[in-house]
């Protein structure tokens, strides 16, 4: 319901640091400080007001909080000391849980690739992660980007910043199966959490 | 007249004065031109030896009028305070050596020395025309304060007055004490942590007043008449139909405010739906609920959602609206939204504001606590409130930029405060020979002063009584009468507490000042007072009209009747009098007029113009002194004369100056108008007005009007004042010398 407290309460109950949203005084400092501000449809200040105005669908299916790069400019400057960055990620996470992320959301897609890469062996395989990013939006684009980055790749190889052999599986942590078991348990716990409305 | 006076001149050689000036020459000027009987010099006049030297001459009866040449009259006032003699000061330090370059150039040395010699001549002439202020015999001490208004501010003031050992009498219009404060369920917190609405102090305050035998209370009463002056106000109280008379030392006006009538704003549906209330209406509902759920008036349903609309008919230039902010209403709405949230956090309470203003030390904390309690704050502008079974609020959300229609169980309108300041003495109908107008004014007036300038206190803007809210709070334009609380400016109870206390202290001060015949702010301690020569008076009434403090009444023969205790000693009356019959013992048309004529006027072909600068001693003169302290150079052709207030400048000084050969005249006073800084409220304004008329005189004399210039100067204008002087010197070079040199 519009301008009633129900969505605010939902955010407080489910979103990391959500109880801070009501404390925003709408000064706009965060919106003015965000390096990506001009590209957001709804800068943080506006998102907080939308939550208070009860705009549930608009907020959760928004692209905006996915734009945050965790630069922490806003947190450093907010006169009310809101942990804005964390709230942005909290909202993104909550939207993911509810399956409300807009389709083909780039940050969301890359985040998934990163997770898949990392969770396999407990170590980030940079070569594979890089390539999967190049090919994230189709084969042709992947080829194009790879060609464009060729020189940099060779340079990194020469200076031993990149090991081409990593493509064949790559290194991992000591107890990979133990890690897998831990992650499985964690995702079970997460799934069991109910959305509190 | 001067013959019987024993004149002494004391010239200081310290602070570099002797290095820069020819002291022998100064001594001879004081002796020959100044005609002083005793002339002494001293290496450091302000040290104990120097001071004892002067004191010894006074004690031995050798001198009773002294001229001290050294630093500015604003410096070393502790050392040079000789109560029993008349004294003038020649400013050789800040006014001469500090503003002139150190140089071997004989021309510069010569003009600098001329400056110093002239200041000696001026100060000698000035002191000759002074007498020592003596007691007027008008003094009286009445340790009893009259408090008009029995609301929060009035009660607080009465209690404070009483704690300090003075008696108080409260006159309250209604049948009960407490005023608006008594209608509140709870009040805005006045102490840290500023978290929750608190029990109103008023209940306890009423008890304190009612149980105190030194505080008298008149209910259902009003002021029938107030005459007299501080220390001896004689007041007639219409106490429930009977006239009770009393003598009071001073008066506090705490007549408070009236709630703005929201019915004047048809778009807000006040009066069209019982579920639209103003803030006082909500207090009533909260009192009824007494801690339980607040119910809406239409059908008694418990309120589940409530919308507070801020700035209703306020901070708006629209016809019939209040242009100002009432200062408490945002705080009040947060407090009232807490009534709901504290009782049941599930209630939706929204505050709709365009700018939220939370003044005071705890304002911001209170706002945060409101947010923590879950009050929704929405920046939005309400266009309409539509009555119905549920009231609909139409507004534009200014952050999300969209039009919204929202249903609510209850809508609370934050309307403003309208001051209860009685009749506007500047615009009300004249009572001269008009009994009907007099009756109407009397009915509307709250103080009913028997003052020639009107029945109530003058107002400044928006109907609030005139008192400078930064520099001279509580001081009004009626000496000994202090306004406090929302009649002075819009405020909440925390501020009203401060106001009541401040006014109580002022009221006490007024009583004690009146007892010994001393002036109040800003010439506090001054014992001089104006008197007039009845034989010369033409009954033009200019003094009675122009006195900024309404100090002068009329006697039965229509002569001015000065009231010493009402007077602030500004001299505006003296500046106004066309026949110059008004004077103070130590400040008169002669003291200044003779001083300015005492300068040694070079003739036309000397290429040495003379500029007279009449500087208000409150701001302009200190600014000039500070120009000296910061060693800013200005023209050696200027001669500066401090005046009590620009309002005291009589146009005779201007024509005397022009006739005696001055080439230019500068007047420096304080800022006038709505944001005045003038320490005597209207003095600077009067002077500007009078000078605007001087153009004709100049024209008749065939003189350029650039020769007389009037400025508004702040105490901080230390870089501006030298420039004004130098510009005048340049102007004179351009237009040539005054042809009236002898
Ligand atoms: S900086 Fe903080 S208080 Fe200001 S709008 Fe952003 S979140 Fe709100
Ligand atoms: S942390 Fe995120 S929201 Fe904050 S300024 Fe940086 S990018 Fe913007
Ligand atoms: S000196 Fe000032 S206050 Fe006193 S009577 Fe004259 S004008 Fe009024
Ligand atoms: S201004 Fe002078 S002449 Fe006029 S009424 Fe006053 S004292 Fe008399």
List the helices and strands and how they pair.
The complex is a heterodimer of chains A (197) and B (742).
Chain A: H1 6-14, H2 29-33, H3 44-52, H4 56-60, H5 73-77, H6 84-98, H7 106-121, H8 126-134, H9 139-158, H10 176-192
Helix pairs in contact in A: 7-8, 8-9
Chain B: E1 7-12, H1 17-20, H2 23-33, E2 38-42, H3 48-59, E3 65-70, E4 86-91, H4 93-97, H5 106-128, E5 144-148, H6 152-163, E6 167-171, H7 202-210, E7 215-218, E8 221-227, E9 233-239, E10 242-248, E11 250-253, E12 257-259, E13 276-278, H8 279-289, E14 305-309, H9 329-343, E15 348-353, H10 363-372, E16 376-386, E17 391-397, E18 402-408, E19 410-413, E20 417-419, H11 435-444, E21 481-483, H12 493-516, E22 531-532, H13 542-546, E23 552-554, E24 560-562, H14 572-576, E25 582-583, H15 589-597, E26 611-616, H16 620-629, E27 638-643, H17 651-659, E28 664-669, H18 683-692, H19 694-700, E29 708-712, H20 720-735
Parallel strand pairs in B: 1-2, 1-3, 3-4, 5-6, 5-11, 6-7, 11-21, 13-19, 14-15, 14-19, 15-16, 26-27, 26-28, 28-29
Antiparallel strand pairs in B: 8-9, 9-10, 12-20, 16-17, 17-18, 22-25, 23-24
Helix pairs in contact in B: 2-5, 5-15, 6-7, 6-12, 8-9, 9-10, 15-17
